[in-house]
Structures are given as structure tokens and as C-alpha cells.
Amino acid sequence: MSPTDSPQVRISQWQRQAMLAGFAGILLCVVGLILDRDQFFRSYLFGYIYWTAMGIGCLGILLLNHVVGGKWGLPLRRFVEAGSRTVPYMAVLFIPVVLGMKILYPWARQEAIHDANIVSKSGYLNPAFFTIRAIFYFAIFFLYSRLLTKYSDEQDRTGDDRLIGKMRALSAPGLVVATLVATFAFIDWVMSLEPHWFSTIYGAMFLMGAVVEAFALTIALLIILVRFEPLREYVKEQHIHDLGNLMFAFMILWAYTSFSQYLIIWAGNLPEEVPWYVNRLTGGWGWVALTIVAFHFATPFVLLLMRGIKRRADRLLKVCILLVIIRMLDVYWLTEPAFFGRHLHFSWMDLAALLAVGGIWLSLYFRELNTRPLVPLRDPRLAGAPRETVAF
Asked: What is the DSSP letter of 344?
């Protein structure tokens, strides 16, 4: 294979394309900010949450693999490591959310002092504490991504088997800590858009969705690049099958938490809880909800039950692309009714913000992915891989 047709060249091309897309999105967002300041911040939050969740999901997969130690994670490790290392950069992109806090969050506005419900939560929901918590969340994410990358790089240099134990010892409590931190982050950044409503399962539901989209993106990239060395040598049909099963499992967890929240709230029929679903199940939003049910659960559920789908890389790739796209719609469905109620609203700035933040995130992601070998070559667990090659 010629040097001009290598994974590094391909990833560099993707990075440049992402940078151009991000630059175009930024220009459109600047125009949007001038034309409609309030809509700009609403759209930006949507794009920001989707892409930040992607990085958080990658960190969760990385921690999970180090804890359970399955061989399924070895070909995917570099992809999720790269994703986890983008999360600290998202702390910088959080600045517009802080600047637009009074537009986005009712509890941050001056008139909130006249709302007894919001005042009762003001010890937690206030601009200063909100910002401090965000800094803490990003610090935790940075700590685990940095330490795991450090140990992984050291293993590449030395091949020391003891580093496997170190990464496991770090990841076991880290999985619990990162899960709690991510749960509170999604509660702060998304659920508090509607401070009169709350759900104890909301953060877990959002986190499951983040893991699904991270699995979908990284598996898709792995499938695209598996034709190249060194991935072609190490990634086998069983790896693809196992990854498809894991993505399926987390999709089921997302569906379980989502339906559990709906069932409990609807059965309880409390006036302070039901309006959240009424806004999202009536008018045009009802069709959006049906689309999410059909393509975030029903269709992938049927497809991923089939062994032939999970063992054929080209078929699994299509399922991954579907989940990456439908996750955008799900995040949109969760965030936008907080601003517009039952009225289905769409702005061109939503796509512009998704393009701007996504271009930046993907550019950073591909840069991180291209700085290290695509396979942890000196990890002893790579030995003894099954013989079947990947089927396309």
C-alpha cells in the first residue's frame, strides 16, 4: 500500500476537512449572533451538548474496558483515548454557555427571585456555583484522560505488563466517579433548562445516550480504517461482532432508562412533572419523538439482533451512521422544547452551531488520533487474536 494511501494520510485529510467545516460553521454562527443573539445561544447549547457528550462517552468506554479487560477494547482503545482527550478542550468552548447563561437558564435571570420554586433551589442553581461545578467536572475528566493516556504511552514504550494493573486500578474507582460527574454535568447543563421539573434518572439516561453515540462514531471509524495496517492485522471479525453487541447493550440501557422515566412520570401524573412530556409529545414534537423511537431503538434493535449484521463490517457501519445521526435528533428533542414549549421550532443556526462545534471537535479528535499508533502494539493481550478476518 502506498504511503499516500495510509491511515495517517486519511486521518489528516479528515482533520483538514473538519477544520474547514468548523470554520464555515463559526462564520455562520457569528452572523447568527448578530441577527438573533438569543437564538444563537440556544443553538450553540444544542451543538455543544451533542459533541461534548461524544467525548464523555469515549472516556466512559475507555474506563469500562480497562476495568473489565476484554479484548474487544484493544482495537478501539486509540479511538476512545483520542475522544477522551478532547473533553478538556471543550472546557474552553463552554465559555459561550456561561456568557449566555441568563438567556438559557431561567434560574440565572433576575426575575427568578420572584419564583418560589426556583428560590428554594438557589443554593444549587446559581451562576457562580454552576460555573465552579463545570470547572470541577472538566478537571475530573481531564485527570482520568490524562493519566490513562500517560500509562498507555508508557506501555507502548516499555511493554510493561504491570501497567495493565495500574490502568485497571485507576479505572475501577474512576468509572464510578466519572459516571457520577457526567450525570451531574448533564443535569446542570440540560435538565436545569426547566428548573421546575426534575428526574432522578435523567442524568443516567443522557449518559447512556452519550456512550451509544461514542460507540457508534468510534466503531464506524474503526471499520473505515480497518483496511489499513496495523489495524488490518489485529482487528478480526470477532472484534467487530463484540463491539456491535456492546453498542446494542448500551442502546438497550438507553431505551430502558428513557422508558422508565416516561412510565414513572406518566403513571404518577403529577402537575409539576407531566408538562415536560406534554411539551415533547404534542404538536410537531410528537413526530420527532416517534422518529426517535423508530430509529434510535426499534430499527437498530432489530438489525443488531442479527448475527449477520454484526459480523459484516459494511452493514454494521450503516447502523453506526444511523445512530450517530439519530442521537443528534434526540439531543435536539431534549433541549429545544425547553425554550419553545409545544411549538416545533427549527432555526438554521441549529445546523450552523452543530457544524461549528462539530468541526472543532472532530478536528481536535483526528489530531489526537493521528499522534499515536492506531493499535496499542505492545499490549500483550493483542496476542492470540481469532483468525477470522473482517468481512465486508
From this structure: -
Q: Which three cell numbers stand for residue 16?
A: 483538514
DSSP letter at 17? Answer: H
Q: Which of 135, 120, 125 is nearest to 102 (CA)?
A: 125
Task: Report the alpha-carbon distance of residue 327 to residue 234 in Å, rounded.
Answer: 30
For the chain, count helices (H), then strands (E).
Answer: 19, 0
Confidence bin at 376 (pLDDT 50/70/90): confident
- pLDDT of 4 reads 54
CA distance 131 to 379: 40
Distance (Å, rounded) from C-alpha 44 to C-alpha 53? 14
- List of residues 6+ apart from 180 with CB closer than 8 A: none
pLDDT in tens, 285-315: 999 999 999 999 999 999 999 988 988 899 9
Residue at 151: amino acid letter? Y
pTM of the model: 0.94
**Strand partners for 391:** 312
Cα separation, 305 vs 316, in Å, equals: 11
In angstroms, what is the C-alpha Rg of the chain?
21
Cβ proximity of 268 and 94 under 8 Å: no
The contacts of residue 68 (CB under 8 Å, 6+ apart) are none
Count CA within 13 A, CB hemisphere, residue 26. 12
Q: Express each pLDDT in 248-263 by its tens digit.
A: 999 999 999 999 999 9
Q: Compute how many other C-beta atoms are within 10 angstroms of the C-beta atom of residue 290.
A: 11
Cell of 30: 457569528
CB 322 within 8 A of CB 301: no
Task: State the Cα–Cα distance between residues 344 and 43, nearest whole angstrom.
Answer: 14
- CA-to-CA separations, 245 to 64, 95, 219, 295, in angstroms, rounded: 15, 37, 12, 17
Alpha helices in 127-236 (DSSP H): 127-158, 162-189, 202-225, 231-234
